Give the backbone structure.
Amino acid sequence: MIGYLPLAASLFTILFSRSVHADAKRALDTNFPDPCVIKTDAGYYAFGTAGNGVNIQVARSDDFSSWDLLSDTDALPGPFPDWVASEPNTWAPDVIKRGDGKYVMYFSASSSEDNSKHCVGAATSSSITGPYTPEDDPLACRLDKGGAIDADGFDDGGDLYVVYKVDGNSLNGDGTMHPTPIMLQAVNEDGVTPNGDPVQLLDRTDADGPVVEAPSLKKSGGTYFLTFSSNMYDTPQYDVSYATASSVKGPYTKADEPLLVSGDPSDVGSLTAPGGSDFSVDESKIVFHAFKNGHDINDGRAMYAADINLSGDTISIV
Ligand SMILES: *[C@@H]1O[C@H](CO)[C@@H](O)[C@H](O)[C@H]1NC(C)=O
């Protein structure tokens, strides 16, 4: 009998690890692009780009598995400060909780100075679902470089940062590929006041197509993990890639393999154009989007959720 035990044990391991290995799961069956996730005492909250009639969408989950769109809630209803265009066209929110218990939302909105470009702003609320009140001044604009989008807050053991993308490809109509650097901006403990000049963490190379964008930053075991998307968001080449560094300011080394690409599995079939990923604060989860109808962007981008493992220099879906 003894001889059979290791066999039984390894069979059990195979079956059990298969049954617990979960693919990414469709979290919301609606258009909810560029999601972020935050865990609170009242459950998980996700925020997404303008859609379903509101500027910033909100969804909630008790268990990270079953999600509800809070369809009557606009987390960022306005009024907006002067730097925001009359049509705010708000994109890619990220929410953090700062030391005094208030929530800070980073968002991108069209610039009143040039509404073909976006700037990154911050807004605060004492309630997770808002309404968030925008700051009078943007955090980053870079209009001469194409604008600034895709802000993500990061707490490095009490030092707060915002990473964002300089939206250089908004200038690509001139026939050249402009830089789309991912920048790191230190902010004061209020989360909204820039502290010093931003530093560049990464930029596109030919392997990334026209862009790197949608950064999210997390530290685990002494390693900084920077996820980002490359290629164009409305094509199947869009992905979730990442780079690692031993210092928050880099240098960052791109991983050999993306974390998520078209064709990867989910509970509703293979993903197409996964991107816009965001880490949970406890570094065990991500949310991201992919084409809702599975083949093109015409029905929008649905939110997906996955458990991850950060180990050494590697991120894996578990
Ligand atoms: C994460 O991956 C490492 C390396 O494969 C493994 O040793 C560790 O047990 C994993 N952790 C979790 C929580 O799955």
